[in-house]
Amino acid sequence: MKITDRDRHEIRSVIERQLEAFQRDDAVGAFAFASPEIQAKFGTPEQFLQMVKTGYLAVYRPRSVVFEDTVVLQGIPTQPVLLLAPDGNPVRAVYMMEQYKNGSWRIDGCYLVSVESKLI
After folding, report:
1. Residue 82: which of 105, 107, 113 has the closest Cα?
2. Residue 43: φ, ψ to 5°
């Protein structure tokens, strides 16, 4: 799979818009950027937001956000993002992305790893 510059731009835009929705506590808005599989897993926007608040504080309230290069890992378009958590600790959020037939992108998962971790 080849990631184009347009894909990179769209992927970044989806993640940025979800992060902005988290800043506003907009559960419905943030949930809209999750893949249908993620939406099915959590059921409601409120349950999704609660999971992010409790398990992904760096994503919910980052002090800073730096996008790294988009890569393809095991056939999955992946966007690593360096975040500064509210407590001042750096963390890397690794977003797995999914593209649909209409060309739109959604977030199909996010894992937090230490900044020292190698993606490959």
Report:
1. 113
2. 80, -55
Partners of 87 in the beta sheet?
none
Q: Which residues are CB-neighbours of 109 under 8 A, at least 6 positions away?
A: 35, 38, 95, 96
Query: Whole-structure pTM over 0.90, yes or no?
Result: yes
Q: Which domains does the chain have, with CATH numbers?
A: 5-113 (3.10.450.50)
| 65-68: long-range contacts, CB 8 A cutoff, minimum separation 24 | 65/16, 65/19, 67/12, 67/15, 68/92
Give the Cβ contact number of residue 53 at 10 Å. 15
Read off the pLDDT of residues 29-52 as tens digits, 9 standing for 90 and up. Answer: 999 999 999 999 999 999 999 999
How far is residue 81's CA from residue 77's CA, in Å, rounded to a whole number?
A: 13
Mean pLDDT over residues 12-30, rounded?
Answer: 98
For residue 35, give the DSSP letter.
-
> Using an 8 Å Cβ cutoff, are 83 and 58 in contact?
yes
